[in-house]
Specification:
This protein is an alpha/beta fold. It has helices at 2-14, 79-83, 108-121, 134-145, 169-174, 188-196, 203-215, 221-225, 243-252, 287-297, 306-309, and strands at 38-46, 49-56, 60-65, 86-92, 127-132, 150-156, 231-238, 271-279. An eight-stranded mixed β-sheet has the order 1-2-4-3-5-6-7-8, with helices on both faces. Helix 3 (108-121) packs across helix 4 (134-145). The protein is globular, with a radius of gyration of 19 Å. Residues 1-23 form the signal peptide.
């Protein structure tokens, strides 16, 4: 009973449940034939962290950031949508996947600052950024601190403050630590980590570092206020984020404050999507989510208004 309760707890707070084809016995997920092949990969050292990256596809660049206890492969189900007409730069974040933990704490602002340097070193002056959950917090901080490098931003299933989570989540998050490592040996989180991590013995340390991050009552209102680019927030209607917080986040971006007007004259440049029948642990693998995100990132999505339909 204790083992099942601990596994359930870590699964809840990890913001990462692998797709069925990822849950193999300790092997890395195979490449989907429909996914654009990797054209470049490697590691870039930034502020003491050797970040692993993979680049796929061609077109306007898009930085893709995974969720907590995940890695690049968690986007395998939707990578064909992202890489269809974009050059996707996917990164394993600090302590995750092939990127070692290093000697510093995991901090969203610090990782965000690292990624602004990383994309510059890879040759990108400006690009779109997509981040899920933990990666969404990193994306928020990257865009706030280096707005000149981010053209458009999508934040998926992430709050701007700790109180954005349902209150029952907070003690579960606070309990995350190395003591759970042994109980997780058969979970997708550990198996996919084990398949690619340079030092599997760091997994308990990663749990400690993520637990320390989640215990901090951080609020990133100042970061939200510094976002100058178009932003889209995407959530599932059964997400771990409170619906009130989703709306509050959108309000802070200037959206949802008044009617847009007949000719969209009061329309905010920012967007909010709450997608049906999706939990926090499914949004990142949803084709609906990926298509909604890409429509925004491509600058599309406007439907014809009534006057346009009748040719007036």
């Amino acid at each position: 009973m204790l083992k099942m309760r601990l596994i359930s707890m870590i699964a809840t707070v990890a913001a990462f449940l692998a797709a069925p084809d990822m849950a193999g016995a300790g092997v890395a997920p195979s490449e989907d034939k429909a996914v654009a092949p990797i054209v470049r990969k490697g590691s870039v050292p930034v502020n003491g962290i050797d970040y692993y990256y993979e680049i796929r596809g061609e077109g306007e660049p898009l930085l893709l950031l995974h969720g907590g206890l995940g890695q690049i492969e968690m986007f395998a189900p939707v990578m064909p949508v992202f890489a269809d007409h974009r050059q996707v730069i996917a990164v394993d974040l600090q302590g995750h996947g092939r990127t070692p933990l290093g000697k510093r704490p995991i901090d969203l602002a610090a990782i965000g600052a690292d990624l602004a340097i990383l994309v510059k070193q890879l040759g990108y002056d400006k690009l779109d950024v997509f981040g899920y959950s933990f990666g969404g917090g990193v994306a928020l901080n990257m865009a706030a601190n280096a707005p000149d490098r981010v053209r458009r931003l999508v934040i998926l299933s992430a709050p701007y403050a700790q109180n954005g989570f349902f209150p029952e989540m907070l003690p579960q998050q606070a309990a995350v630590g190395a003591g759970m490592a042994e109980m997780m040996k058969d979970t997708p989180m550990f198996l996919t980590y084990k398949a690619v991590a340079p030092d599997v013995s760091e997994f308990p340390k990663l749990l400690d570092a993520m637990g320390a991050l989640m215990r901090e009552p951080k609020v990133y209102s100042d970061a939200v206020a510094r976002l100058t680019m178009p932003v889209m927030l995407i959530y599932g209607d059964a997400d771990m984020i409170r619906p009130e917080h989703m709306i509050d986040f959108y309000h802070k971006l200037g959206g949802g404050l008044r009617d847009a007007g007949w000719m969209r004259e009061n329309m905010s440049k920012n967007r909010l999507a709450i997608l049906p029948d999706l939990t926090h642990y499914e949004t990142f693998a949803s084709p609906l989510m990926a298509n909604v995100a890409m429509t925004f990132l491509d600058g599309g999505g406007k439907a014809p208004n009534w006057a346009e339909q009748v040719g007036k």
